[in-house]
Design goal:
about 475 residues; TIM Barrel; 9-stranded mixed beta sheet; alpha/beta; Urease, subunit C, domain 1; binds zinc ion; globular
């Protein structure tokens, strides 16, 4: 028996059913959303038509939007928040690589449960993750699914990190697109990471293929899809990048990596290859409509044009870029060129707030703060587009999620906009609920549905215990740092 339909009635609705960020689509100041069989059955203005056997949700004072899509994350970093507080990316990585090498699959599970639960509470219904720590002899678990685990993994509940985080996503109830990341360019070969945290090239490729075989679900409405994710130009060899692209294209999976995050990376690429990061990516076969790239802060106009021409998408992570002082991505230019841009929280160690709802606000401020771009650089609705349809485009699911079009997956966020902070902006004279969501502080959730299943209700997780997740992640952090003083 299929579950009862759900009718959300009396709310503002922003469907994001338009053609692009300049035309985000239909909105209703007072309308309804009807969910049946895990999909959007209808949206419309005014009260909902009578729906037999439906559960009716009073949406008064709320705004319904598509659930938000997070396009860049490193869930394991929940265990190393607050470190390297004034470091640049390269210094911060150099401090943290040896710590991360000690994180085993069970600790990844605790971090992923906390991170995904927290994402759900900020309106996220689909998230990626980028896990690239698989030290050859360390706790990370170098082998593929069900294979040889590292010393930290053998005795625990999970054999390797992807298995652990996929289990966490299932328990929290989010749609999940983990990247099987990889690094094979240790310091002795000219890379940034120490040799002990990287894998052999062939082992990384074999484990990535095994992860695809074990977990990737290409079917419509899938809850888990795998992407292929060598880490960055300064930690993955050209061979690993090229072979990863070939593997992804042979298996119909998507490609993700970090690119053009800092000026240090730009200098590194030019020194090593004589090319800019974007030129190097193109030479490796890493521009295309099956690729989404994290950050893209340091792009010249020619690179923006190449991303647009090749259909390459961008995961924009404004809070992390601000935390590490990396710079501000050229979002106005990317959108004007037609590049698909999604939002990402990035890892909790470079973006401790990790609130996807908050990235709407931060994206707008960052775009407008970029030299010369000004208040026309990004509107509230463009920010919401990036967090929904843009994100779904990055993950290759624009036809399934990111909008409230009839037939789309019933991934819905119902935001409370009758709070002290939001009510006047949303509902006062000339009120604008989308502006209240983006310009105001992060709004609490009345309801979050993933495939029609309630994950958050009245601001509380329904699927798992936030208090238990907090206890587990604190215990995992204690195991990681031992007796180190707080
Ligand atoms: Zn990252």
């Amino acid at each position: 028996m299929s579950p009862a339909p759900i009718v959300i009635d009396g709310c503002a609705v922003a469907t994001m059913d338009g053609s692009g960020p300049a035309d985000p689509g239909t909105e209703y100041r007072s309308g309804h959303v009807i969910v049946a069989d895990g999909r959007i059955a209808a949206t419309g203005p005014g009260p909902a038509p009578r729906t037999e056997g439906a559960i009716v949700v009073n949406g008064s004072g709320c705004l319904a939007t598509p659930g938000l899509v997070n396009t860049h994350h490193h869930l394991y970093q929940w265990l190393t928040q607050g470190r390297g507080q004034q470091s640049t990316l390269f210094d911060w990585l150099t401090e943290l690589y040896p710590v991360w090498a000690r994180i085993g699959p069970d600790q990844v599970h605790a971090a992923a449960t906390a991170g995904l639960a927290w994402l759900a509470l900020s309106g996220c219904t689909t998230s990626t993750d980028h896990h690239y720590i698989f030290p050859k002899h360390g706790a990370g678990g170098g082998a593929g699914p069900r294979g040889r685990a590292g010393p930290g993994g053998g005795a625990g509940a999970f054999a390797e990190p992807l298995e652990a985080e996929i289990a966490a996503a299932a328990a929290v109830g989010l749609r999940f697109h983990p990247c099987r990341g990889s690094m094979d360019l240790g310091a002795s070969a000219g890379g940034l990471p120490p040799d002990e945290v990287v894998e052999d090239t062939d082992a990384a490729l074999a484990a990535t293929a095994a992860a695809i075989a074990a977990y990737h679900d290409p079917s419509p409405g899938a809850m888990v899809r795998i992407a292929v994710g060598p880490c960055s130009p300064f930690s993955a060899s050209a061979e690993l990048m090229r072979e990863s692209a070939a593997l992804a294209r042979a298996t119909g999976t998507r490609l993700h990596t970090h690119l053009a995050e800092t000026s240090d990376e730009e200098d590194y690429c030019r020194e090593q290859t004589g090319l800019s990061p974007a030129e190097y990516a193109e030479e490796l076969g890493w521009l295309g409509d099956d690729v989404w790239l994290a950050h893209c802060v340091h792009l010249d106009d020619a690179a923006v044009g190449r991303l647009a021409a090749t259909g390459t998408a961008v995961a924009h992570c404004p809070s992390s870029n601000g935390r590490l002082g990396s710079g501000i991505a050229p979002v106005r230019k990317l959108l004007a060129a037609g590049v698909t841009v999604g939002l990402g929280v990035d890892g909790p160690a470079s973006s401790e707030a990790v609130r996807l709802g908050g990235e709407l606000h931060q994206a707008l401020l960052s775009a407008r703060s970029r030299d010369g771009d000004g208040p026309g650089a990004l509107s509230a609705r463009q920010a919401l587009w990036m967090a929904t349809r843009g994100g779904a485009g990055c993950l290759g699911r624009d036809d399934e999620t990111g909008s409230l079009r009839p037939g789309a997956l019933a991934d819905v966020a119902l935001w409370r906009l009758d709070t002290l902070a939001h009510d006047a902006i949303a509902h006062g004279p000339g009120g604008d609920p989308v502006a209240a969501l983006v310009l105001g502080p992060p709004a609490p959730l009345a309801l979050l549905l993933v495939g029609g299943n309630p994950v958050v209700q009245d601001g509380e997780l329904r699927s798992t215990s936030a208090a238990a997740a907090a206890r587990a992640v604190r215990a995992a952090r204690s195991r990681l740092f031992g007796d180190e003083p707080a």
